[in-house]
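Changelog entry: the Acetyl-coenzyme A synthetase record was regenerated in this release. Current contents:
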Amino acid sequence: MSESTELEGRRFPAPEELTAQANVGPDVYERAAQDRLGFWAEAADRLTWAQKWDEVLDWSNPPFAKWFVGGKLNVAYNCVDRHVEAGHGEQVAYHWEGEPGDTRTITYAQLKDDVCKAANALVELGVQTGDRVAIYMPMIPEAVVAMLACARIGAVHMVVFGGFSSDALASRITDSGAVLVITSDGGYRRGAPSALKPAVDEAVGRTDSVRNVLVVRRTEQDVAWSEGRDLWWHDVVDRQSTEHTAEAFDAEHPLYIMYTSGTTASPKGILHTSGGYLTQVAYSHWATFDLKPDTDVFWTSADIGWVTGHSYIVYGPLANRATSIMYEGTPETPHRGRWFELIEKYKVTILYTAPTVIRTFMKWGEDIPAKFDLSSLRVLGSVGEPINPEAWLWYHEHIGGGRCPIMDTWWQTETGAHMITPLPGVTSLKPGSAQTPFPGIAAKVVDDEGNELGDDTTGLLVLTEPWPAMLRTIWGDDNRYVDTYWSRFGKEVYFAGDGAKKDADGDIWLLGRVDDVMNVSGHRISTTEVESSLVAHPTVAEAAVVGASDPTTGQGIVAFVILRGNAEDSGDELVQQLRTHVAKDIGPIAKPRQIMVVQELPKTRSGKIMRRLLRDIAENRELGDVTTLTDSSVMNLIKDKLPASS
Ligand code: 6R9
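Regenerated structure tokens:
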């Protein structure tokens, strides 16, 4: 049996102590299957509604869904005020930690005051219900306050990741028609202040909808100032009243737009609305992580500029009255133990992060986490890409101390909340598989004609019933919404764009985007499978695999690998060893045509490997657009390593 299959064969039953007191037990699946809409209605009852809904779901005009029809609520009230009213004002909402080591502790009572002041400021600036507000900020508490202030007055926030270029910001401002930009002078990254305001100035100069720019002072860098347009947050927000009455909005009132890259050049503005979204993010946060608001300390390590930050730093945790960690900087500043230091300091009980981070920690070595007391941790989570069984095991052992179950959560910007994931007190875990559709979610693996597949046959992942946190459309482009997601198998089946297979137990394995599925001599091979195999080799820390066009086989497998710190690069000998390893592990058909040992891999700012660029290299093409890379010099590093012929 191959190494990775051996690992994949291992099971990790739910820890008994956890099962005994878990928020949800195994009966939840049956309950949801018997009465799906009743199940979601119960989940919605966890929120405070100003007016109860008349109908749980209106699916009379698919794929345009309406959830909790006729219901009214205020999202910010649900995230903040109601907890203060219930006597929890002194509970910490966020332990915030700046990269330089400055800290802020924000209670629910303080958050309520801050959100009310910011809401009053937005009103003073003429922002109205339904207006779009761009937020372009570092990971500072004002980013959360700004989002909630928008939600409070019914304005639609549109957060753009602070690492994006002014181009990206400008196109998103134009597409959404934002009237206000909330930003800061800058933030701290890798030990130095990094400016944001210049990108805003450039972007706003090229758009015509923005009336004002509201600027938080964070780094105290010098900033250019446009009189009349630019305003300091501390001038405008600080003097406002802490009283603001939250109006209840329709359950389908737009809450936010989040742009996500698609296959074409223009990003898609994914629209999320209020009642259904908050229902599913709150319920999933509570169920997937077994969140106990009185005792847990929850940490999602994502940036607020991604959907993971929206759903599991802001809306889910706050709706559940969680105490969360918010960290401004990078894992290696000022040292590689920074995260573990934070876990120890705040006694974090639940950590939610991405496989790419785990693999980076693997590369740095297990002696780093070993120096810290991580015994407070009890549940771990993973999101963003398939987690290789090796990374899973490393996470389980070296961060989770062998005792914490790992929730491998599959979902997307479009789905809004967890869709396929184990549950901590229920599921017997299989490293590398996201396993089970969430209660109340219907997922299948199908072939090109839409026929359901099982028995480990690779196919496409589809969602066959609407769900509360689903996207409602692409902003301003209903046709693109229908074409992209609801056309391939008819307008009632959501096409996720991910390859998947279902094993004999009915567990789902995600295999990467379908454009990452290679076709070698007519065989479908997932890039993820080959990557997992390479990472299972003792010398390899990280691997990225692409299918490069090949005159004989259709596509040939080209792998880029980063070696572990202690592994020696023996050149050709090592490459041959790795090729043989994969051939033995998966089958000769999966033997990489070429393997290149590199120092870094090109990644987007959300940590996804940019296989498109690697494919360019593998096929000897001019490099495509590198603007969304964290570090575009990575590509030069890789090219320098190539044989002279390429
Ligand atoms: C939440 C988020 C969505 C895409 C998705 C899939 C990949 C996310 C995953 C996973 C395997 C997981 N993905 N979680 N693949 N296992 N647990 O990441 O949203 O940035 O929109 O990306 O990420 O390919 O389609 P988003």
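The longest helix spans residues 108-124.
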